[in-house]
Amino acid sequence: MREGVTIADVIEGRADWVVCTGDCLDLLPSIPSGSVDVCLVDPPYGCGKAAWDATYPTEWYPMARAVAAAVVIITGSIGLRDTMAMVRSDVVDVIAARNMNALTRGPIGFSNWLAAVYVGAKPRQGPNAFDFVVTGDMPDHPSPKPIMYMDKLVRRVTEEGDLVLDPYCGSGTTGVACVKAGRRFIGIEISPEYADIARRRIREAVPTLFQPTTKAVQAEIFA
Ligand SMILES: C[S@@+](CC[C@H](N)C(=O)[O-])C[C@H]1O[C@@H](n2cnc3c(N)ncnc32)[C@H](O)[C@@H]1O
């Protein structure tokens, strides 16, 4: 938990973000139905990168559907088949993101795109494809999402002020993108080590009044 902030504090507007250490299967049932705008999930894909990545989990999905108006699942190409089998006819659309400078291994060779499967009500209108690049500033986690990807996805599927829930939040990339874009955030992560990394990254990303700006921006402010 972040310095005494609870999930209820974020839902009821007393805090903007929290990362809870715990099992999302235990914590999701305590979140009131319909209290979240978008559940943005980057679940384990069952590709064996770590002990937690042995299988593709599905038990979280009905719980996420109950708490959030929309559920957006980042699948990569490896997790696409299992995700489609889980959401079945709930699927509304898929948002494609092309990786402009790196490849991952996919089912039929090297893959240069990420899929995000959209489920739920009232999808925000806009393009359903964008490009991103992977930059060097990756946290100490086996499968962090690139920050440019998450920045663009958060802005694509949420509105300013929305409450976003990531029940498999890892090193907190979703939370970083949310606080930068003025979205509220609840993260759940089972590993205390990754949860600490997430809290640190989010704390450092929260915009402050005194954040350093470029000379061009300063000139504009003080003109
Ligand atoms: C694919 S990673 C998420 C990576 C994240 N998007 C990032 O950018 O760092 C999935 C995460 O889910 C966590 N996890 C696995 N099972 C969990 C559970 N039952 N409850 C909460 N977190 C879990 C793992 O520890 C891992 O950090």
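^ S-adenosylmethionine complex. Helices lie at 7-11, 24-27, 60-67, 80-87, 147-157, 173-180, 192-205, 215-222. The pocket of S-adenosylmethionine is lined by residues 23-25, 42, 44, 52, 141, 143-145, 167-168, 170-171, 173-174, 188-191, 194 (CB under 6 Å).
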